[in-house]
Amino acid sequence: MNYPAGILSPEEKLVFALCRLEFDDIIKNDIRELTAEISDWNRFVHLVTGHGITALVARNIHHLDIDDRIPVESLKLLDGGRLQSMIRNAWLASRWKEVNTILSEAGIRHLLLKGMALEHSVYGSKGLRQMNDVDILVKKDEILKAWLLLQSHGFISDMIKSPLHRKIITETGKHMPTLRKDGFPVELHHRLFMSSDRNKLLDKAIDNAVEINIEGSPAFIPGNDIHLEFLKSHFEDHSSVGNIQLRLWLDLELLSPGNAPAFTAGMIGNPNPGSKPGQRKENFRKRFYSMPISVRLPYLMGDIFPSLKWMKKRYNCGTLNAMMHYPVRIAKIQWIF
Question: For residue 314, how many other CB atoms are within 10 A of its CB?
Answer without folding.
Answer: 13
